[in-house]
Design a protein that fits this description.
This protein is α+β, with helices and mostly antiparallel strands. It has two domains: about 240 residues, 2-Layer Sandwich (Nucleotidyltransferase, domain 5); about 230 residues, ATPase, nucleotide binding domain (Nucleotidyltransferase, domain 5). It contains 17 helices and 19 strands. The strands form six sheets. The protein has a seven-stranded mixed sheet with strand order 15-16-14-13-17-18-19, sandwiched between helices. A hairpin with a 2-residue loop joins strand 13 and strand 14. The longest helix is centred in the C-terminal third of the chain and has 27 residues. The radius of gyration is 22 Å and the shape is globular. The chain starts with a strand and ends in a 9-residue tail after the last strand. The C terminus is likely disordered.
């Protein structure tokens, strides 16, 4: 049997622990544990804030690693290493003794937005972009840290560990900051590949606030004795840095046959862009709000963070809640909310040319009644949107496809990159209607899948570090192509929006 690798892959709405292996040049994945994730509301005298329940998340990680150890024992092959990826920007504060100070804030909390003006008063947007190349988002780490200061938090003697680094710390006791996630903070130099210490000084942040940087493929540390005892894995099992920003791992696993591709990592958010060898730090790039995030092997993920399937999942949650509460009848008297498959089929039957919304609007970031917020956005633009779920779903998907088309065109133009095909990976690759609408809107072929691109990238970087996978990124992608048969969608020109 081949060696096994454990991938801890946590998104904003769910998490998985997956055991991966390489056999005959193809990767195989086995999900051994799934668990939900979501924002936790914390109510204090100061108000309500949104957080991540790290103790529960870490308990689920331990359960998953225990299941991975059991799987390895059952098949008679060892777990050679563990890799961790999550979403970006969020962090936990750890004191000198290693204790976590409170639950990590969620990027969906509004605290960062309130600090944008103050930060820009000390470091102008142009100055920030010229050094970091980072897309402006009100929840970027730099603004969240400013919110800590505004709340009177003393950051001296503390370290900010980004979410995957925080989980790795709890597993190994080692404090490191993996570069692909570090590049999303607003405090990382896009060209230098180092912490932007001058910016930290300008903001009054301690120069020891973040731990030393580490690259994908480097070992973070081995399991603490108590973790080994709990999970059944050997204490010598290393935790290896992967593309710890889940998009970095996903892009590493795009099964592209040539470099002339654009990618859409489609999930709660949509990350839309191209892969480059150097950042684009022009004023035009800043004005278009493109980001230059680090990828595996020093590549640049030149992309824009576009609204994603959060709009759809939150709409479904709202309809389910309404049906449960008896506030509204979603599809006829006393009927349950249609399934996702039924909603998509009904949305596909809706006529083309309906209203669009700006999926990047800050109005759609927080939880709440998403269908009503979408209808309100349409009304504000002078349009109308019918109430049935099918109409709302079609509006969401049409709007996403239109935004994807604009973003791909801009990425190609601003970077000078030729794009011949679009690869959609992640959960959105299963949404056939979205894939087809994207092909229609862009006029380019779309190849959908793999769904588990993030886990594949995670496993492949671990395998390469162990000498069990090819060195070149193109060869790793060939391994993914050999493991997965994508679905191809060709543009239907008669359906394209004028």
């Amino acid at each position: 049997m081949s060696a096994l690798f454990a991938a801890v892959d946590i998104g904003a709405s769910s998490g998985r622990v997956i055991v991966g292996s390489l056999m005959d040049g193809a990767a195989e994945l086995q999900v051994v544990h799934r668990f939900p994730n979501g924002v936790t509301e914390v109510v204090t005298e100061a108000g309500t804030s949104l957080h991540w329940d790290l103790p529960e998340l870490f308990e689920q990680v331990l359960q998953g690693l225990t299941a991975a150890a059991a799987h390895a024992a059952a098949v008679g092959s060892p777990i050679l290493s563990i890799g961790i990826d999550t979403w970006a920007v969020d962090y936990g504060l750890v004191d000198a003794a290693g204790a976590l100070e409170g639950l990590p804030f969620s990027y969906r909390d509004a605290r960062g937005a309130g600090q944008v003006k103050r930060v820009h008063g000390m470091l102008s947007p142009r100055e920030l972009y010229a050094a970091t190349g980072l897309q402006h988002l009100p929840f970027n780490t730099i603004f969240q840290l400013a919110a800590e200061q505004a709340a009177g938090r003393d950051l001296a003697g503390r370290q900010a560990l980004l979410m995957p680094d925080l989980i790795a710390f709890k597993l190994t006791g080692a404090r490191r900051a993996e570069s692909t996630n570090a590049s999303t903070t607003g405090l990382y130099g896009a060209v230098a590949g180092e912490w932007a210490s001058g910016f930290m000084a300008a903001l009054g942040l301690p120069d020891t606030l973040f731990p030393p940087l580490i690259e994908p493929g480097e070992a973070i540390g081995t399991l603490l004795p108590e973790i080994a005892a709990r999970t059944g894995l050997p204490a010598t099992t290393p935790v290896v840095a992967v593309g710890s920003h889940d998009t970095a791992s996903a892009v590493a696993a795009v099964p592209a046959a040539s470099p002339n591709f654009a990618y859409i990592s489609s999930g709660t958010w949509s990350l839309v862009g191209v892969e480059l060898q150097a950042p684009v730090l022009s004023e035009a790039s800043r004005a278009a709000n493109f980001t230059n995030e680090r990828g595996v092997d020093g590549t640049i993920r030149y992309l824009r963070n576009v609204g994603g399937l959060w709009l759809l999942s939150e709409s479904i949650r709202s309809w389910q809640q309404e049906a449960h509460d008896g506030v509204a009848r979603v599809s006829g008297a006393n009927r349950a909310v249609p399934s996702l498959a039924e909603l998509l089929a009904a949305a596909a039957a809706e006529p083309a040319g309906g209203p669009l919304v700006d999926v990047d609007s800050e109005d759609f970031i927080a939880p709440g009644n998403m269908p009503e917020r979408i209808r309100a956005a349409v009304r504000a633009a002078g349009g109308t949107l019918e109430s049935p779920p099918a109409a709302v779903v079609r509006c969401i998907l049409d709007s996403l496809a239109a935004s994807y088309a604009t973003t791909v065109e801009q990425a190609a133009r601003l970077s000078g990159k030729t794009v011949d095909v679009i690869h959609i990976v992640g959960g959105g690759s299963q949404n056939g209607l979205l894939c087809q609408l994207t092909a229609n809107a862009t006029g380019l072929p779309v190849v959908a899948g793999p769904v588990e691109a993030t886990a594949l990238g995670n496993v492949l970087i671990q395998a390469r570090a162990a000498g069990a996978a090819p060195e070149a990124l193109a060869e790793l992608r060939a391994t993914v192509a050999a493991s997965h048969t994508g679905t191809k969608y060709l543009p239907r020109l008669l359906m394209r929006r004028s």
